[in-house]
Amino acid sequence: MAKPDISAKLRMNIASAVVRTHTAYRLRLLNVFMQAGLDITPDMYFILRYLWGEQDGTRQQELADKTGKDKASLTKLLDNLEKRNLVKRTADETDRRSKRVWLTSTGKKLKEKVYPLALSVVELAERGLTKNDLQQAQGVLETIYNNIKR
């Protein structure tokens, strides 16, 4: 019995499809934000989305954990969000070594513009798929994630 071609197996694995899909999703989000005149990147959106989701004032370390960002990347993202007056960081009252991240009023208002744009990308991505298709795909990806997570 012939051994499978290793390079073909690596090219055709699910990770390649996930990476391609992730890249396409991020590029589409960026394009939609730019066309709307918004000066945010997909990574900034993911940080803001977490804060908008009832997590305003979260600790910086928790934000890194929940968004899958390392400390250095998150710090740079937060610096850029602060420059745009979308978030502010304050010392944690119970642990001075820790910082909390808060939305500014400008950051809170941005949600009204960004959510419909992000939803349009989600709807585009899910076009032609049933609820069952999406649930199955999510289940498969969750299993793969759990198999390989740190």
TrEMBL record:
Tell me the SUPFAM superfamilies matching this sequence. Answer: Winged helix' DNA-binding domain
Q: Which Gene3D superfamilies match?
A: Winged helix-like DNA-binding domain superfamily/Winged helix DNA-binding domain
Which keywords label this protein?
Answer: DNA-binding, Transcription, Transcription regulation
Q: Which residues form the HTH marR-type domain?
A: 11-146
InterPro entries per record: HTH_MarR-typ, MarR/SlyA-like, WH-like_DNA-bd_sf, WH_DNA-bd_sf
Look up keyword Cytoplasm and say if it applies.
Answer: no
One Pfam family of this protein, by short name?
MarR
Q: Does the keyword Protein transport apply?
A: no
PANTHER family with a match to the protein in the record: TRANSCRIPTIONAL REGULATOR SLYA (PTHR33164:SF64), TRANSCRIPTIONAL REGULATOR, MARR FAMILY (PTHR33164)
Please identify the protein, giving its name as recorded: MarR family transcriptional regulator
Source organism: Chitinophaga hostae
